Amino acid sequence: MKLSGMKKIVLLGLILIIVAGAIVVALKGFNVSLIYEQHETIKLVIGKKIEISDIESICKEVFNDKKVIIRKIELFDDAVNIDVESVTDEEKENLVNKVNEKYGTAFTKETINITTNPNIRLRDIVRPYIVPLFISAIVIVAYMIIKFRKMNAITLLGKIAGIILLTELFIASCISIGRVPLTPSIINIMIAFAIFELVLYIDYTEKNYKTLKD
Fold it and tell me: How far apart are CA 16 and CA 189, in angstroms?
C-alpha cells in the first residue's frame, strides 16, 4: 500500500520521535516515580489531624529541591509517610525540629522511623501486566481469525499489530523524552490507547467486510 505525501511526513515524524526516545532511554533510561527508586521513607505518627499542605511546606524547607512524596497512612489522618531521595543527619534534625514546633510533639532523630527502600526494576513494574495481556492477545487473535475468516486474517492482524506497536512506541518515546515518571497509571493509559485503537480497527474492518459482502 502506497502512502500519500502527508502520511509519509507523519510516519517519518513518528519514526524520528521514536528514535529520539530510544536514544534517551539508552542514555538515561526511563524516569520512574520516586516510589520505584531507591529512597528513604520517614514514618511520622503525629497523633492529631495532619494537613498534607503543612507537611509539604515543612518538607520543602527541609529537603529543598529533593524529590518528596507525602502519603497519609492512617484512617484518622494523624500519620504520614514521607518518601524522599535521601536524608542527611542535618535534614533529619531540621525535620524533627519543625514537626515538633508545628504539632507540639517530642520527636528526636533517634525516635523517628526511617526505612531504606531498594530500587524496583522496570520489569518488576511491568510483570503484573504480562499474563493478562498475553491471555487477551490470544483471545483477540482467535476472535479476529474466526470473525474475518473469509478475509486475510493474518494480514489484518499484522496491520493492527503494526499500528498499535507504532503508537505504543510513540507514547513511550514521548514519556522518555519528556522525563515523565513511569508509573502503573501511565502503563494503564498506554494499554487503554491500545484497546481503543483495536476497537476502532475492528469496527472499521467489520464495516468494510459488510460492504464487501453486500
Answer: 23
The mean pLDDT value of the chain amounts to: 86
**Nearest Cα to 123, choosing from 12, 46, 30?**
30
Task: Report phi then psi at 112, rounded to 5.
Answer: -75, 145
Region of residue 179 (phi > 0: left; psi between -120 and 50: alpha; otherwise: beta):
left
Distance CA 183, CA 36 (A): 9
Bridge-based pairing state of the strands 79-84 and 68-72? antiparallel
Report the amino acid identity of residue 187.
I
Q: Please list, in sequence order, all residues whose beta carbon lies within 8 angstroms of the beta carbon of residue 191, skipping any fewer than 6 positions away.
A: 129, 133
pTM: 0.69
Q: Which CA distances in Å does 126 have to 65, 137, 190?
A: 29, 16, 12
**Burial of 182 (C-beta count, 10 Å sphere; 0-12/13-18/19+):** buried
Q: Are 182 and 176 in contact (CB under 8 A)?
A: no
| Residue 112 identity | I
Which value, to the nearest 10 degrees, does the dihedral of the CA atoms of residues 31, 32, 37, 40 take?
A: 100
Q: How confident is the model at residue 111 (pLDDT cuts 50, 70, 90)?
A: confident
C-alpha cell at 15: 519514526
